[in-house]
Design brief:
The chain is α+β, with helices and mostly antiparallel strands. Helices cover 37% and strands 22% of the residues. It contains 17 helices and 22 strands. It binds ligand MV4.
């Protein structure tokens, strides 16, 4: 086993990896930018090194600085988390040169799935069904026109180097092709430094369901069930759950076996995810492979009783998977909300700033993967996700009830969050029935009244902050906090009444 692991990330995922290291008796090394000096991931790691200014390019995206710390601190492995450099084969190669084990797939497998057209070719070799479309990058807009007529509208232009919806454009008819081509190529060039595009038939309103896979260095590959990720906004997932309300044991097995065939064809090791679209007939189509641990991995952990980060580390250290496919059992239901410092009432603009008070929910079936603490300032330089709130229950109904209960306990003051939105989303009859698809959240958000009522008013926020401050003061004095408690519960009741008053008419 490794002695010391460098965590090349920040926020809740850096915290998650540091915790796994601690449980395994492996030392952890954090890196941080100047604005993250007092952050939780720095506090929980055994050592921490500043690697530069807030600007990601000069800190969390600097392979040179990160490798220098790994070598200097005597790390024998590196965990990339997600985002930043996680799917950059250059980091994996730099690790190999520095004699540091990269905790993830080989650079070769990463290249193979990083190019979405190469991944489609691999999927075809593995006999995995895909959305009709091209297997090669398209040469130019003229070639695109011929292909478009062949495949039929509506179409989707996608970036070869893409993923996650960047550089993607829907084309409804031939008229829109030229413009979509220009927009998509320049967006792709901007985001990935690679303007190449390919094309797929556009499926309208499918579900987005992904399969977690794990492969060791001894040829063992398993699938760990699915995650339903259809509740998205602008290609950012908002709620994820496992299992999917629509996946039957037979479909799970078919999708799982397809994902494993694909991973085997790509020579894939460590944790990965195969994304699929599922239509209302239960037909599934391969989209892409994500070569990393994903944000939503906890829902899989809760229903499988596995620790994916510890397994990633064991696999990278050369250990065989300690179980086989037939040992994987799914138990109960898990659901995750991504809690963001953002303002749903103001076009979801990020809401960085100082967290005055923070009360995280606890209790039966609740897990918080959070990267923040009270008194800390959420920087404006990075993704404003504060953390994830995850609930487990013996049924979907119990998981939702626990999540709703926990959301009502969750209290943040000082910054705006999307908590109010979740409190309403998770009470929606359609959501409760599991009748969701990739366009569902956009439709829900455009219902009259939904956004206006989602957040507390500024007065309510002030009252909440005041209540929390009174509570802190009362508790630190050792006094009975009756006044604080009374004022806080009144604020809460008022907040709740307001929410009920403004339920949208359906
Ligand atoms: C699609 C699709 C429909 N048809 N491909 C979105 C992110 C990236 N992983 C792939 N994505 C999609 N690819 C075909 N051929 C639908 C999505 C998609 C989506 C599209 C528009 C609006 C919201 C969406 C949410 C999830 C997936």
């Amino acid at each position: 086993m490794f002695r010391k692991i460098l965590i090349a990330n920040r926020g809740e995922i850096a915290v998650r990896v540091a915790r796994a290291c601690r449980e395994m008796g492996v030392a952890s090394v954090a890196v941080y930018s100047e604005v993250d000096r007092s952050s939780l991931h720095v506090q929980l790691a055994d050592e921490a090194y500043c690697i530069g200014p807030a600007l990601s390019r000069e800190s969390y995206l600097s392979i040179e600085k990160i490798i220098a710390v790994a070598s200097g601190a005597g790390c024998d492995a590196l965990h990339p988390g997600y985002g930043f450099l996680a799917e950059n084969p250059a980091l994996s190669r730099a690790c190999a040169e520095a004699g540091v084990v990269f905790i993830g797939p080989s650079p070769h497998a990463m290249d193979l799935v990083g190019s979405k057209t190469a991944a489609r070719q691999t999927a075809r070799e593995a006999g995995v069904l895909m959305v009709p479309g091209t297997l090669e990058p398209i040469r130019d807009v003229l070639a695109a026109r011929d292909l478009a007529v062949e495949i039929g509208f509506p179409l989707l232009l996608k970036a070869v180097a893409g993923g996650g919806g960047k550089g993607m454009r829907v084309i409804e008819s031939e008229d829109g092709l030229e413009r979509a081509w220009r927009d998509a190529s320049s967006e792709a060039l901007n985001a990935f430094g690679d303007e190449r595009l390919y094309m797929e038939k556009f499926l309208t309103g499918p579900r987005h369901i992904e399969i977690q896979i794990l492969g060791d260095s001894h040829g063992n590959l398993v699938y760990l069930g699915e995650r339903e990720c259809s509740v998205q906004r602008r290609h950012q997932k908002v709620i994820e759950e496992a299992p999917s309300p629509v996946v039957t044991p037979a479909l799970r097995r078919a999708m799982g076996e397809a994902a494993v065939r694909l991973a085997r064809a790509a020579g894939y090791q460590n944790a990965g995810t195969a994304e699929f679209l599922v239509d209302d007939k239960g037909e599934f189509y391969f989209l892409e492979v994500n070569a990393r641990l994903q944000v939503e991995h906890p829902v899989t952990e809760l229903v499988t009783s596995l620790d994916l980060v510890k397994l990633q580390i064991r696999i990278a250290a050369g250990e065989p998977l300690p179980f086989r496919q037939e040992d994987v059992e799914l138990r109960g239901h898990a659901m995750e909300c991504r809690i963001y410092a953002e303002d749903p009432e103001n076009q979801f603009f990020p809401s960085p700033g100082k967290i005055h008070s923070l009360r995280l929910p606890e209790g039966p079936g609740i897990r918080n993967d959070s990267g923040v603490i009270a008194g800390w300032t959420v920087p404006s330089d990075y993704d404003p996700m504060l953390g994830k709130l995850i609930a487990w229950g013996s049924s979907r109904e119990e998981a939702v009830a626990r999540l709703v209960r926990a959301l009502d306990e969750y209290a943040v003051s000082g910054i705006r969050t999307n908590l109010g939105l979740f409190r309403r989303l998770l009470r929606d009859p359609e959501f409760l029935a599991g009748a969701i698809h990739t366009r569902w959240l956009d439709q829900w958000l455009s219902r009259p009244g939904v956004l206006a009522a989602a957040e507390r008013t500024p007065q309510e926020e002030t009252a909440g902050a005041l209540a929390a401050a009174l509570w802190d003061a009362a508790m630190s004095n050792g006094a009975a906090p009756t006044a604080a408690r009374r004022s806080e519960s009144r604020w809460k009741l008022e907040g709740r009444a307001e929410m009920i008053d403004r339920q949208p008419r359906r």
